[in-house]
């Protein structure tokens, strides 16, 4: 499966967190404002990044700006 190799692949780009104001979920535990993360996969709505837990997580693009 493709997602099993994401942590080992070369990052596509880097993004910086600009806010963690989520309406439905708590993302402030997994994302730090001002920190830069490597994007391992990207869809139309989401970035999959290696977050503060050390695992790959999917987050809305609205939390980030491209570096």
From TrEMBL:
Cite the source lineage: Bacteria, Bacillati, Bacillota, Bacilli, Bacillales
Domain of life of the source = Bacteria
Q: Name one Pfam family in it.
A: DUF6501
| UniProt-recorded name of the protein | DUF6501 family protein
Classification via InterPro entries: DUF6501
């Amino acid at each position: 499966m493709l997602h099993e190799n994401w942590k080992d692949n070369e990052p596509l780009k880097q993004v910086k967190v600009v806010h963690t104001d989520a309406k439905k979920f708590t993302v402030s535990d997994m994302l730090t404002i001002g920190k830069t993360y490597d994007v391992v996969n990207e869809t139309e709505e989401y970035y999959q990044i290696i977050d503060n837990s050390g695992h790959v997580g999917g987050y809305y693009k609205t939390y980030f700006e491209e570096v």
